[in-house]
Amino acid sequence: MPNLNENYLKLQENYLFSEIAHRVAAYTKQNPEKNVIRLGIGDVTRPLCQCAGEALLEGAKEMMSADTFKGYGPEQGYEDTRKAIVDYYKRSGVEIDASAVFVSDGAKSDTGNITDLFAHDNVILIPTPVYPVYVDSNVMCGNKVEYIEGNADNDFLPMPDWNQHADIIYICSPNNPTGACYNKGQLKEWVDYALKNQAVILFDAAYEAFVSDSELPRSIYAVEGAKQCAIEFCSLSKTAGFTGTRCGYTIVPKELVFTASTGEEMSLNAMWNRRQCTKYNGTSYIVQKAAAAVFSEEGIRQCRENLEYYRENARVITDTLSDLGIRFYGGVHSPYVWFECPKDMDSWTFFDYLLQEIQVVGTPGAGFGENGKHYFRLTSFGTYENTAEAMKRFRNLLETNKKRKFVFSDWKSFLS
Ligand code: MLT
Question: Ligand 1: does its nearest atom lie under 6 Å from the Cβ of 41?
Fold first, then answer.
């Protein structure tokens, strides 16, 4: 009998979004006539933009002809795709070298896989609340995690504690789930802290395309010194609707060199390259062709039309919450809106309650960590019609309950 990786015993039985899917499936099985609106997982509803779709078709045609057919590609990504990513950064004023760019099947895989590069005795700082993959992937390999507290007092933007040492720091900005976004000064403090501690920041920029204020950094490399201390993960899932098409990229600057216990120099770029060549055969050619098209100026212009559509949905959600006097976070530089559950209601109870009463699915904050236990997340990635209908139901529920002095009469912020 094999000895199993018993770290899996320390995980919740289901991954957050699988648990939500199970609960919704059970509900719809029992209530097939109900129209359930899903504003839970951040899955997009707009189709691929024209540029990306045409590139996919062109790529498929190339694969059907002996002259242009391609087998295994470079594990790091095709040159054109890497260059298109470099140019995309350049247009926002950030210089990166193509040798630092590794194209992949998404930021989720890479943020999970990156643990391969590090030993198991590091001090790992992870914010709570945050995207659950960071914690789960560390728990799976037996790593101990320390939490940095995001809460209403710091607007869910925790800052470094200079008295505490760290080796690895996870940052997600704009943040999933809270939508909070660090400014340049705040990120600079994290970079300075990492440099002082010789730590590595693992920066998840999956929602960078939603940043609508040019003063806010969309990449950690907009901050001086970041190439000496940060790896950046990004994805086309939200930027370009690739949740089903799958493409992301990770930037591992060559400046990231640390001294091993043997005294040898180890480059994270070389290690990641070694890891990818061993365990990954590269992102498919046609997907990379579409990704390169997305990062052209015209591709980005087309993607922005979809982002505008989601922004309008976010406005529908935030306008409703504002009208009802419910304090919220996010929804501006982020597709997510984050708000407190009614007093004393934990987020899973609130999830079940909304599903039962108005058939609206959101994401319970508990799934993002301890500090999310009494919060709830709605996504703006649904269709406009569904978003408007969900918020209409939400408003009606609240107003009916207010009259009845029922559950929602306990909503602290609503009464204040
Ligand atoms: C989310 O809803 O948090 C995201 O869609 C999850 C993901 O990107 O994997």
Answer: yes
pTM of the model: 0.95
Ligand 1 centre and the CA of 257: distance in Å?
31
For residue 25, CA distances in Å to 56, 132, 355, 357, 365 come to 33, 22, 11, 16, 20
- pLDDT tens digits, one per residue of 114-169: 999 999 999 999 999 999 999 999 999 999 999 999 999 999 999 999 999 999 99
Ligand 1, atom 5: nearest CA belongs to which residue? Answer: 42
CA distance 168 to 291: 30
CB 41 within 8 A of CB 17: yes
The string of DSSP letters for 144-185 reads -EEEEE--GGGTT-----TTS--SEEEEESS-TTT-----HH
Q: Is the dihedral of CA 27, 29, 35, 39 positive or negative?
A: positive
CA angle 115, 119, 123 (to 5 degrees): 90
Question: What is the helix (H) or strand (E) element at residue 235, kind and residue range?
Answer: strand 230-235
- Picking from 392, 394, 377, 382, the residue whose alpha carbon sits closest to that of residue 336 is 377
